Amino acid sequence: MNKFKPSILFAYPTVMQLLLPHIKSGNLKIDPDIIVLGGETCFPELKEELEENFTARILNAYACTEANMITTQCSEGRLHINIDWVIIEAVDVNNNPVAKGVLSDKVLLTNLSNFLQPIIRYELTDRIAIYDEPCKCGSVMPYLYVEGRSNDMLEFEGVEGLVEISPMALGILGKVTGLIQYQIIQKSHNLMELRLKCQNGYDKAELFSQANEYFLEIFKNLGVENVEFLLSEDEPKTDPISGKLKFVIKEMDLN
Q: Which of 47, 124, 176, 247 would be a feasible disulfide site paired with 167, CB 3.0-4.6 Å?
């Protein structure tokens, strides 16, 4: 990359997270104009750290293999839907449309540009909310908010019943100094296993202790108690096919 010196980078957020230590150490000397993040959830803490270490404009993108770029991020930070390229339907579990501004259970995608292999109302397991009020950027396109995949939601037994927590709520772990990546394995409604990848010179057990304190504070504020975290001997594992890092893996029996 030092030799190529890219002016535009398209990358998974977790890949950029792995590059950060090399940028900070000076081993990686690149200065792109634009960095586009997509394919995974990008936590605000990571975007903030990227902005501190790059002069590039950092953009989020909502995209998928079946339609490529679904949105374009504007100057206000909103993800405007490319309505000349795709039709996006925010629906509930029964495929009924949800109201504007309401989180969906999934998405139905229609690709308007693929004439070789029609893709009509293709189901994505993302949870989104669509808004159509005017945006200060001047775009007339509706915009959306992406919370994450429905099967990435953590489930806990709270004092008032089942509580779902988005991985976005756990992005605070990006503030733990020395932590490169993490992955949560949900074993049951009250047992989690945490995989950590740390920078050289940092003690994994110490970082786990810090992460555990963050988690317990978040859960307490949400009315969830008696949750136990275990430190895994393994590091976070990416999908062998897509190369993406799933922040949440559910191994519990839902029956």
A: 247
| Secondary structure string (H, E, C) spanning the chain | CCCCCCCEEEECHHHHHHHHHHHHHCCCCCCCCEEEECCCCCCHHHHHHHHHHCCCEEEECCEECCCEECEEECCCCCEEECCCCEEEEEECCCCCECCCCCCCCEEEEEECCCCCCCCCCEEECEEEEEECCCCCCCCCCCEEEEEEEHHHCEEEEECCEEEEECHHHHHHHHHCCCEEEEEEEEEECCEEEEEEEECCCCCHHHHHHHHHHHHHHHHHHCCCCCCEEEECCCCCCECCCCCCECCEEECCCCC
| pLDDT for residue 173 is more than 80 | no
Output the pTM of the full model: 0.68
Q: Any idea which of 20-34, 100-114, 162-176 has the lowest mean pLDDT?
A: 162-176
Spans of all domains in the chain: 8-60, 79-150, 153-250
Is the domain defined by 79-150 classed in CATH 2.60.40?
A: no
